[in-house]
Design goal:
It is a single chain. It is globular and about 70 Å long. Among the domains are: 140 residues, Rossmann fold; 102 residues, ANL, C-terminal domain (GMP Synthetase, Chain A, domain 3, 2-Layer Sandwich), CATH 3.30.300.30. It has 533 residues and is an alpha/beta fold. Strand 24 and strand 25 form a beta hairpin.
Length: 533
């Protein structure tokens, strides 16, 4: 075909529009297939797919009318809501890059994300507007779009527009924006293993390939009724579950958070068939008194991920929910985020495993020279897949390192057995996963080092019955300084989000090190493993 003359620009654009298959197109196509089917339930609001699509189009035109265009970045700081769902697809239809922000972060942490991403606007739920304003000021952003999501029922604060006014009226037609497969649509900030979060760029190609893997290997279907309780700023809830439901035409029930009593009542009331929770939330459901009094008989599919499921908890779930099939999803933001799946029939025979590579993924274990290691040997987990991100925004060095030799390097250590089952055995860079959230030990260490009187500190995770891993700090005070746990806790409250703060603080005269001076965190984990018991 190389000798065929190229098409004119007009013809090439017409072909591109005819072939367009971006995330923003998925909702429109579902609305055409199932216009009257229930799409979203959020509080008192119940909307069909046709109504959902119109709301998204109106919001997209409102954003366009306020100057947002393809490639611009819009930050979103909010708990789960109807408006959150609309903004996800409205930005996708415009080719505007959505920057979901963790609502547990402090103003300084948010300011870094705003500045690094080059965000030209921000939407925040009304209760978080004061934090958003501090962050905007800290980032030096004095103008641009300001949208307030009215979750408390009050009016929009001064200088902010009510997002509902963007959604409830305006042009209902679909925007005519050409969005290519690999145009970035999402900029997800992940702490990963660095002291500052990295911006992971995801495109329609990355996300839709991942949706297909979730659908096929995760047993998902148009008949699902799913409740979404984990934060949608996290790509697990947003892209393994909510967006897949929209793609398929399944029904989504959106809750602001994973309160166990509300969640159990919602399963009963809405006849929910499908539920994703990290292990910490499954544990909270099992321990809640309503678990045995609510009618959970509609539930057929259960999913877990973000951290390892304790084997005894998995056995208890199988016993108390005998009609529910379970899947374990393993991955990371850079994989949009799914990489491997442990399927229902594999749960107990391979308990603790992350499963095998999903439909559109290749996974292998490599040594420090990127050579594949034999089955049973520990090495770094790497993947090759269209799920993979476009790279890290504005960071050539980290992108080159992560994607070297044509594979995405996860930073996790694992082992694959002779049957292809992956077990994750450690974080290569001491990542801590607590309550489903990633915490970089180095970031916490650097924050604690800011406290006067700290000579050395090592931060690591220890096993915890609720959080799965608990952030733990061993602090060596400077000679002659008498530090207290209360001082460390007070300092951490000033500089770190709540989930990043150490749950355990231990003082020591020195830290264990190898001959080259490297701190032996493995020894510390063993020494302090009993703190949570």
């Amino acid at each position: 075909m190389s000798d065929v003359a190229p098409f004119t620009p007009a013809t090439a654009e017409s072909i591109a529009r005819a072939r367009q298959h971006s995330v923003g197109d998925l909702l429109r196509r579902t609305a055409l297939r199932y216009p009257d089917k229930l799409a979203v339930v959020a509080g008192e609001r119940r909307v069909t797919f046709a109504e959902f699509d119109v709301a998204v189009n109106r919001c997209a035109h409102a954003l366009s009318g306020r100057g947002l265009a393809k490639g611009d970045r819009l930050a979103l700081l909010s708990h789960n809501s109807w408006q959150y769902a609309v903004l996800v697809f409205a930005t996708a239809k415009l080719g505007v890059v959505l920057v979901p922000v963790n609502f547990m972060l402090g103003a300084e942490e948010i300011a870094f994300i705003l500045g690094h991403s080059g965000a030209v606007g921000m939407v925040a739920e009304d209760a978080l507007v004061p934090t958003a304003e501090k962050a905007l000021s800290g980032a030096g952003l004095t103008d641009g779009v300001r949208g307030s999501i009215p979750l408390t029922g009050g009016g929009a604060p001064d200088g902010w527009e009510d997002v509902d006014s963007w959604i409830d009226a305006g042009d209902p037609s679909s925007p005519r924006v050409l969005v290519a497969d690999d145009d970035p649509l999402r900029l997800m900030y992940t702490s990963g293993t660095e002291s500052r979060p990295k911006g992971v760029m995801l495109s329609s190609r990355s996300l839709i390939a991942q949706y297909v893997s979730c659908t096929v290997d995760g047993g998902m279907s148009v008949d699902d009724v799913e409740v979404h309780t984990l934060p949608m700023y996290h790509c697990a809830q947003l892209d393994c579950f909510f967006s897949v439901d929209v793609y398929l035409g399944a029904t989504s029930i959106i809750l602001p958070g994973p309160d166990p009593a509300t969640l159990l009542a919602t399963v009963e009331r809405e006849k929910v068939t499908k539920l994703f929770c990290p292990p910490t939330v499954w544990i909270s459901l099992l321990r809640h008194p309503d678990f045995d009094t609510r009618d959970l008989s509609s539930l057929r599919k259960g999913y877990y991920g973000a951290s390892a499921m304790p084997v005894e908890v998995l056995r208890e779930l199988s016993r108390r929910l005998p009609d529910v099939q379970f899947w374990n999803f393993y991955g990371q933001t850079e994989m949009s985020p799914l990489a491997t799946i442990l399927r229902p029939h594999e749960q107990l025979p391979h308990a603790g495993s992350a499963g095998r590579a999903s439909l559109n993924v290749e996974t292998r274990i490599v040594d420090d020279n990127d050579e594949q290691v034999p089955a049973g040997e520990v090495g770094e987990i790497v993947h090759r897949s269209p799920h993979a991100a476009l790279g890290y925004f504005g960071d050539e060095e980290k992108t080159a390192a992560a994607f070297r030799n044509g594979w995405f390097h996860s930073g996790d250590l694992g082992v694959i057995d002779e049957n292809g089952y992956l077990s994750v055995v450690d974080r290569k860079k001491d990542m801590i996963k607590t309550g489903g959230e990633n915490v970089a030990s180095r970031e916490v260490e650097e924050a604690i080092y800011l406290l006067d009187g700290v000579a050395e500190v090592a931060v690591f995770g220890i096993s915890h019955p609720h959080w799965i891993e608990a952030v733990t700090a061993v602090v060596v005070p400077k000679q002659g300084v008498a530090l207290t746990k209360e001082q460390v806790d007070a300092h951490a409250r000033e500089v770190l989000a709540g989930y990043k703060r150490p749950k355990y603080v231990v003082f020591a005269e020195s830290l264990p090190k190898n001959p080259s001076g490297k701190i032996l965190k493995k020894d510390l984990r063993v020494e302090h493993a009993g703190l949570a018991t």
